[in-house]
Amino acid sequence: MKFNNVAFNKPFISGKELYYIADSVMKEQISGNGYYTKLCESRLAKITHANKILMTNSCTSALEMSCLLLDLKPGDEVILPSFTFVSTANAVVLRGATPVFCDIRGDTLNLDEEKLQELISNKTKAIIPVHYAGQSCEMHSIIELAKRYGLSVIEDAAQSVGAYHHGQHAGTLGDLGCFSFHETKNIMCGEGGALAINNPDLIERAEIIREKGTNREAFFRQETNRYTWVDIGSSYLPSELQMAFLFAQLENLDQITAKRKAAVEYYYIHLRPLVEKKLITIPKTLEHNDVNYHLFAIICRNKDERDSLLSYLRNRAITSVFHYIPLHSSPAGERYGDTKGNKLSVTEHVSDCILRIPVYFDISTEEQSYIVHSIYEFFQR
Ligand SMILES: Cc1ncc(COP(=O)(O)O)c(C=O)c1O
Q: How far is the centre of ligand 1, averaged over its atoms, from the C-alpha of 44 (Å)?
């Protein structure tokens, strides 16, 4: 079967999304911190067992709130992978601090925990492990190292709702965890996010920072008789319309994860012969990680082959994409970041050779079969 267009990603409705949006309007509050925001917070706390969840308007906002909460300032350093989305580094740079870029592991594409220690200096304040593709970084050794040097840990769990590490939900192991509900994520509401606050000392101030630096949240709990400006902060609340949509998806998380699992396993099974012939590799899942099937990536043998495969698929109306341009070699990364003189060779190789193929909630077996056949055709030319 041939297709005119196989999208890379598609937003979807899993159940009561539109009904809950209508209900939020009927409840006469569509600004932030209302009925559906609270429902999402308690549901996500139940799923993750996080100490406290605050919904935000993006994961970018949750990362920025985390850097505000840690009081990062000029001169401070924060270690994070170069192979990540720009928001991980921007949050640090917005506080005037310096992102120090660490290389990744070739098997999982996650921060290489073995290369962390050599990057720690007396200026280091925090580590931001990024759980790539819903697979957690080696959090036990990262947290042990952070404790030894008195550092905070912010987990970038943007891609990790529904993913577990040694049985614990991603984003709940460090001091703070940041989730994304952007349209490209497993469960989504267009733009959205959440901050998991695992260190109880940070909860009160996080509420203030999210509410533009005011104690409005305490006022609504009737803990104060007026609300006023008490600290720095910004507008990090999502609207009730977004939270109404998201709540329906949170209700259906298991069903959504199961559908993605079937799609990802289809690729594993059908592309395995290409792995055996050493034409491609596929990142490995470590046995103590339960992943959420966020994405499916293949690593080609070199950049030319990856670029040719991408165009080959494009000519067959299949959208495949690659990411990330290594942050350390980007214009802003060179200006604001530091590699401490290291060459991040795994990051550069993966960035050159990776290709992500379509995975979304209602991708059909026919579409997946067409993608797999097209990949085989490419390697048989
Ligand atoms: C690793 C990572 N961090 C942060 C973000 C930012 O998420 P958001 O779009 O919700 O701000 C993303 C989004 O793709 C991401 O993949």
A: 18
